[in-house]
TrEMBL record:
GO molecular function terms attached to this record: DNA binding
Source superkingdom: Bacteria
Entry annotated with the keyword Membrane: no
Organism, scientific name: Paenibacillus zeirhizosphaerae
Leader sequence segment: none
Entry keyword annotation includes Cytoplasm: yes
Name this polypeptide is given: Probable transcriptional regulatory protein OIN60_10570
Pfam families per the UniProt record, alphabetical: TACO1_YebC_N (PF20772), Transcrip_reg (PF01709)
Family in the record: Belongs to the TACO1 family. YeeN subfamily.
Domain TACO1/YebC-like second and third: 79-235
Amino acid sequence: MGRKWNNIKEKKASKDANTSKVYAKFGVEIYVAAKKGEPDPESNRALKVVLERAKTYNVPKAIIDRALEKAKGSADENYEELRYEGFGPSGSMIIVDALTNNVNRTAPAVRSVFSKNGGNMGVSGSVAYMFDATAIIGLEGKSVDEVIEVLLEADVDVRDVLEEDEAVIVYAEPDQFHAVQEALKNAGVDEFTVAELTMLPQTYVTLPEDTQAQFEKLIDSLEDLEDVQQVYHNVEFEE
């Protein structure tokens, strides 16, 4: 079970090393979420999720405020939410979520990265059925038993609560994201090490040694694309 958090942690570490790109992507994501409803996280649940995620990546307040102000103003950039599915080296599976204001730019760019790095694009639904949408919330300072007790008292259903790498990780259905956070906040938790809505694979694969570097380059190249917000895969990296 620990492999779930390990892959999320690996992803966070990679993003932490590319802060300017991460901040720019969050700026777009915050703007799009704010434009879907009111630019107020208390009445806009989608926006609240993005802002909670942004906290765990230490996105500066100035960037958040700029995106919210843009959403409140007359700016009306139209972004589409797109999902691409494909296969990497040795049959690995990959999901790419994008926000774009130019579909004609995004699709060819994603396809090109796949083809140049030993992968290929699949049709819609060819990969996603092997993944489960999941809320992952991590915290420190409480034990597994304490977290379970808090969630039971708040009548919040979750899939699992585990101790992984000195943190407690809660796995839940996406629609329980806010309920889990609110229950923990009411119990005195004021900071989360991770707060993600992600796609977790139902099974993991370990790549042959001779394709690992190629796969990592494929994932890095996809995440570097301007329009790509999230990349999910089913590869378990060696620790």
